[in-house]
């Protein structure tokens, strides 16, 4: 599959219309649990969303003749859209009743669902709020382990938590596509450890020029088309 390391006319993130736009459009739904009294930390939510995308990609139901395989193929043949919605209380319980996978972090819970047509969301997901999802880190975020995969956020862009969760999901997916089979298996076996951090402004140019998987946003929401949002720095890809 194409990715944005070398943007092409058929890239799933290319802002201009291309061959992928002619395919039926699907979206990967993610729902983050945000209870009023105990919202998750922002960084943990971003990391959990990225791991949720990887768990969905690696699930046996997403491959071969699995029950989600056709939807996954149709989704990956078009633009790789992801939309993050938020839920609490009864909304979250209804979302959990739908087919999908819940991934937990230290404080975050994110449920990922098999792709759906752009205009064909299940009603219990379609009614959930999508805009204005924002979170904070109330405690200092420790430095990332340089020996582990890190998804580096563009320090010049301000994104809501929901937008950033989708972008880190894109970056994790691009890294997954680029990894050799042995590295994929090792990452999966260890539970997809990763960190999400905002890059130092002085380090950002080197990251974007280093040949690592890089997300350039299509510009549907919040930021300008073509904006470079996340670089996926996996040790096996350096």
TrEMBL record:
Signal peptide: none
Enzyme Commission identifier(s): 3.1.1.29
Alphabetized UniProt keyword annotations: Hydrolase
GO molecular function, one term: hydrolase activity
Reaction catalysed by this enzyme: an N-acyl-L-alpha-aminoacyl-tRNA + H2O = an N-acyl-L-amino acid + a tRNA + H(+)
Domain of life (superkingdom): Bacteria
Region annotation (Disordered) ranges: 1-22
Enzyme class: hydrolase
Family matches, as SUPFAM superfamilies: Peptidyl-tRNA hydrolase II
Pfam families xrefs: PTH2
Annotated protein name in UniProt: peptidyl-tRNA hydrolase
């Amino acid at each position: 599959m194409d990715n944005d390391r070398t943007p092409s006319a058929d890239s799933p993130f290319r802002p201009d219309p291309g061959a992928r736009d002619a395919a039926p459009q699907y979206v990967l739904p993610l729902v983050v649990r945000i209870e009023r009294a105990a919202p998750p930390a922002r960084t943990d939510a971003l990391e959990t969303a990225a791991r949720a995308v990887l768990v969905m990609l690696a699930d046996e139901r997403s491959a071969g003749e699995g029950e989600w395989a056709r939807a996954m193929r149709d989704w990956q043949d078009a633009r790789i859209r992801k939309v993050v919605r938020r839920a609490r209380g009864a909304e979250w319980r209804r979302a959990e009743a739908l087919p999908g996978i819940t991934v937990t972090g230290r404080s975050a819970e994110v449920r990922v669902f098999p792709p759906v047509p752009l205009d064909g969301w299940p009603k219990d997901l379609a009614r959930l709020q999508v805009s204005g999802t924002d979170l904070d880190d109330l405690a200092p975020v420790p430095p990332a382990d340089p020996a582990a995969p890190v998804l580096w956020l563009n320090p010049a862009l301000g994104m809501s938590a929901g937008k950033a969760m989708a972008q880190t999901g894109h970056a994790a997916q691009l890294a997954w596509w680029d990894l050799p089979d042995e590295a994929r298996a090792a990452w999966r076996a260890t539970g997809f450890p990763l960190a999400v951090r905002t890059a130092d402004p002085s380090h950002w140019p080197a990251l974007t020029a280093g040949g690592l998987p890089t997300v350039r946003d299509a510009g549907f929401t919040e930021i300008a088309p073509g904006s470079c949002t996340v670089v996926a720095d996996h040790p096996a890809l350096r």
